Amino acid sequence: SLGKARVEVFRPASRSDANLLSDLDLVVELRRAVERKEIFLQYQPIYRADTRKIESFEVLARWRHPQRGIIPPDLFIPSAERNHVINLLGWSILGDALQELAKWRSMKLNTTFAINFSPLQFLERDFSFKLNRLLAKFGLLPNDVVVEITEGNLALQSDQFLEKVDGLKRLGFLVALDDFGVGNSTIANLRDLPFDILKIDKSYVQNSDSGSKAAAILPALVEIAKASKLATVAEGVETQAQLERVQALGVDFIQGYFFARPMDPDEALFLAKEDCAL
Ligand code: C2E
Ligand code: CA
Ligand code: CA
Ligand code: CA
Asked: Which residues of the chain have pLDDT under 50?
């Protein structure tokens, strides 16, 4: 229907087509996008495996580009990281998420928000100071948020990185290691890692019923997490079979399209209220 304002999803035909947004243009455009509030947030529930109640919502950024339609984060976060716009973007996303969370708290909803941070932003010198200041501005506490960090490059082998994780935990934040299993540096050192939660990458969950290599790795990842006394989240659960498999392995939390896709804040709020009343 031509009359309706319809949003088109920007889907490049290939990876290299993503460079249609040349990095140079992207820096300019992303700064403008933040000013013009084109970045918006969706929320995906994370459920407790045992009670099936909502524990948290992961905050996921999207870009409503005036010409290109909705751009998914995989197509702008990496460029933002390469071009040092990620900090500006990250703080803006956090502010928006905390504003939303403050509204939920005023309605007596107590789920946490899990927020993704680039290792680059995380490594900013005054990261935890700024984080605390923003929380205070909205009357929130450290344990209202889960800080999700991906094991980027060699970050996990750096003392600076691990000390920061430790520092955040001491301040009362929950810290999750995202995309667990993808990197190769972690597993050997895992016992020393100061995280609360491991999020098992969806590639291991989704191939878990195929008899593939991933199917063999998944139980090992869960075992490692348990041995380290860390809570586990299985992400990307799409089917009943995958759900049964991760539950049989004793995963603590479950996230995926099988239960819910990322959704707009009002829908998420509605779901949270409903879940709370159960
Ligand atoms: P992630 O942190 O691993 O987030 C989970 C991704 O898996 C999300 O993709 C989510 O929509 C998707 N997902 C959840 N359940 C399922 C499922 O059952 N099946 C499938 N196929 N996918 C599922 P999304 O929203 O496209 O985000 C992609 C990545 O972009 C995120 O991966 C994260 O690394 C990054 N990202 C998103 N928002 C932010 C942000 O605010 N800041 C930063 N630094 N990175 C972000
Ligand atoms: Ca994440
Ligand atoms: Ca992940
Ligand atoms: Ca990811």
From this structure: 1-8, 13-17, 188
Residues 237/259, Cβ–Cβ less than 8 Å: yes
CB 217 within 8 A of CB 181: yes
* Ligand 1 center from residue 3 Cα (angstroms): 32
The set of residues, in sequence order, having a beta carbon less than 8 Å from that of 153 and lying 6+ positions away, is 119
DSSP code string of 127-177: HHHHHHHHHHHTT--GGGEEEEEE--TTGGG-HHHHHHHHHHHHTT-EEEE
List, in order, residues 6 or more apart from 219 with CB less than 8 Å away.
249
Ligand 1 contact, 178 CB (< 6 A): yes
Q: Is 192 in the pocket of ligand 1 (CB under 6 A)?
A: no
pTM of the model as a whole: 0.91
Mind listing the pLDDT tens digit for each residue in 42-89?
A: 999 999 999 999 999 999 999 999 999 999 999 999 999 988 899 999
